[in-house]
Amino acid sequence: VGSALVKGISGGERKRTSVGIELITNPRVLFLDEPLSGLDSYAAYTLVAALKKLAAAGVLVFCSVHQPSSEIFDMFDDAVFLHDGRVAYHGPVSELPGHFEKLGFPCKPSFNPADHVMFLMQKESAEAVGRVKERWLAGALHGELLGSIEDARAHASGPAWGRGRAAGVGPCSELAVLMRREVRGTLRNRGVLGARFGMSLFLGALYAWLFAGSA
C-alpha cells in the first residue's frame, strides 16, 4: 500500500483497498464515510455498483457521499439529506423529485436530483428551508419511517441477532494474529523502523558518554 515515505498505490486504490479490507469479515452492516472522494467517475461508479450487489445480498450499506453523479445516485435505494442537523428528506430516491415538486421546488428533467436538493438547501432562505423540514416531519414518508422502526423493534430480539454466528477465537489465537500484524506493519514501514534503530543507537551512545568513568 505504501506510506508517506515509501511510494505505493494511488489514493483511489488505497480507498478501494480500505473498503475491501472491511469486506473481509463479511459484515452484516457496512458504514462508509465518503468512499467516493478522490475517485474518478468510472472508479466511483464501479465501487457503488459493487456496494449495490452487497446490498442486494442482504448487507446494510450506509455511506455519506458528496456530489454523486446521476448514475450513481440512481443506484441508491434511500437517501437522507441533512441541513443544520435536521432531516430535510429521508426516503426512496425514486420519490425524491415528486416530494420536492409538491413543496413547490420542481426538479428539471435533465438535472441531477441530488444536486437539486443541495442547491435548494444552500440558495433558499432559512424560512423556506425550515418549511421543507417541517413538511418532511408532517409528511407521509416520515410516518412510514416511524412505522417501520416500530415494526423492527417489535420483531427484534437479542438472542436472535447473534444466532448462527461462529464462536469467537481464543485469546492465544488473537494474540498471535495481532503480533504477526504488528511485526509485518513494522517491517513495511521502513522510516519508522530506521528511526527506532537510530534512536536506540543515539541513546546508547549518549548514556555511554554521560556515565563514562563513573563506575
What is the CA-CA span between the terminal residues? Answer: 49 Å
**How does the major sheet shape up?**
2 strands, parallel
Helix/strand/pairing category? mainly alpha
Q: What is the H/E string?
A: HEHEHEEHHHHHHH
Which topology of the largest domain does CATH recognise?
Answer: Rossmann fold
Into how many domains do the coordinates divide? 2
CATH class identity of the largest domain = Alpha Beta
| Count of alpha and pi helical runs | 10
Which consecutive residue ranges, at least 5 long each, have pLDDT under 50? none
Radius of gyration over C-alpha positions, nearest whole angstrom? 26 Å
Mean pLDDT: 85
Strand content: 5-15%
Helix content: 55-70%
- Number of E-state strands: 4
CATH architecture of the largest domain: 3-Layer(aba) Sandwich
Indicate the overall shape: elongated
User: How are the strands of the largest sheet arranged?
Assistant: 1-2
Write up what this structure looks like.
The model has no long low-confidence stretch (mean pLDDT 85). The chain has 10 helices and 4 strands; from the N terminus they run H-E-H-E-H-E-E-H-H-H-H-H-H-H. A two-stranded parallel ribbon has the order 1-2. A two-stranded antiparallel sheet has the order 3-4. It is elongated. The chain folds into 2 domains: 11-162, Rossmann fold, CATH 3.40.50; 171-210. It is mainly alpha-helical and 215 residues long. Helices cover 58% and strands 11% of the residues.
